[in-house]
Design a protein that fits this description.
elongated, mainly alpha
Length: 83
């Protein structure tokens, strides 16, 4: 976690709680592991949502156009991001 944490109060299904706590306990759960698991899950979900939005934004491109755009972006990044 970062330097500054906030406390959340969340409600989850009892079976979800049991499944997660069982999973963590089987792996030697330590204090703070539940919070770390939730933070990681939220970050992955936000990444997945962002990736989905990104893909929708480029859905009209052909594979060749997408590859050309990716190559251009990689070249730009290798040159230090300057135009």
């Amino acid at each position: 976690m970062g330097d500054e944490s906030v406390r959340w109060t969340v409600l989850v299904d009892k079976n979800t709680d049991i499944d997660l706590r069982t999973h963590l306990a089987q792996r030697g759960m330590k204090k703070g592991d539940l919070s770390k698991f939730i933070e990681d899950a939220v970050k992955w979900r936000l990444f997945d949502l962002s990736l989905t939005e990104f893909r929708k934004g480029f859905a009209d491109l052909s594979e060749e156009e997408a590859m050309a755009l990716a190559d251009e972006a990689a070249t730009w990044a290798r040159q230090g991001g300057k135009r």
